[in-house]
Design goal:
Length: 185
């Protein structure tokens, strides 16, 4: 199942079905009619959707150089950026997700632990913490438990989505699923 950022789900589907197309695992977006403030999010949602060796192509009515810098900071070495058309009225860009080797179970666990070490101080500052429950290298999934103040927090789901998932995927882009396991009392 393709999952999109909840807030932008309808917009991404509109772009891919009405003004673009999905061809296999490649996605084409026409961003010229999209509000400027939503364009980066639309491209990033499409990027999260495509598989390795697939491409996100988009058209824009302004130079997407700031988006290029954003990709450099988040996905350095994991993509290929090609201008197909360079202004002055229309820019077309193809961003291909490069194929990377599958990590071993040990490499995966080390990377997940590094990601958790990065987010842990923020959770601990609010009286919470995170524990690794399981890493499945075959399914590329991670199970975690939020503990302490995070355990029953109304913002726990948001923390998992925007903090934990984002940080883990930054360290291990191949992770497909982050599973929240309820802490036992």
């Amino acid at each position: 199942m393709v999952s999109f950022n909840y807030k932008l789900e309808a917009k991404v589907l509109t772009n891919t079905m009405d003004r673009g197309m999905i061809n296999g695992t490649d996605i084409e977006l026409n961003l010229t009619d999209s509000p400027v403030r939503e364009r980066h999010a639309l491209v990033f949602d499409a990027w999260e959707t495509v598989e390795e060796a697939s491409t996100v192509r988009f058209k824009s009515d302004h130079d997407p150089r700031p988006l290029f810098y954003h990709f450099e900071s988040e996905f350095n070495g994991l993509y290929d950026w090609q201008y197909e058309t360079e202004g002055p009225l229309l820019w077309s860009v193809a961003i291909t997700k490069l194929k990377t080797p599958d990590p071993t179970q040990e490499e995966l666990e080390e990377s997940i632990e590094a990601a958790m070490a990065e987010i842990r101080p923020y959770l601990q500052a609010d009286g919470g913490d995170i524990e690794l429950v399981n890493v499945d290298a075959e399914e590329m999934s991670v199970a975690v438990t939020l503990t302490g103040a995070c355990k029953g927090c109304p913002s726990a789901e948001l923390t998992l989505k925007n903090g934990v998932k984002t940080t883990i995927k930054k360290h291990v882009p191949k992770i497909k699923e982050i599973i929240a396991v309820k802490a036992s009392d």
